[in-house]
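Table 4 source record.
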Amino acid sequence: MSRSNHKRDCEAKDVAHPSIVPAGTPDWITPELVEATIRVWQPYYTDLLSPEEAVTMILNVGRLYQVFSSGASP
């Protein structure tokens, strides 16, 4: 089962506990990764971080890693 179907199934079965992963998020970003990102970064922010902001952070760090690991000169 794909994660998008899993999200839909979870929402239908457990409306009281919706998934923390925003719709449209790549499949490799798990609820645990979003929660861990918020847990690590929240102490550095005065406002509460949203799952959408956590996903943005995760994607940006992934892009930064790609740049550093490509070995290309700036």
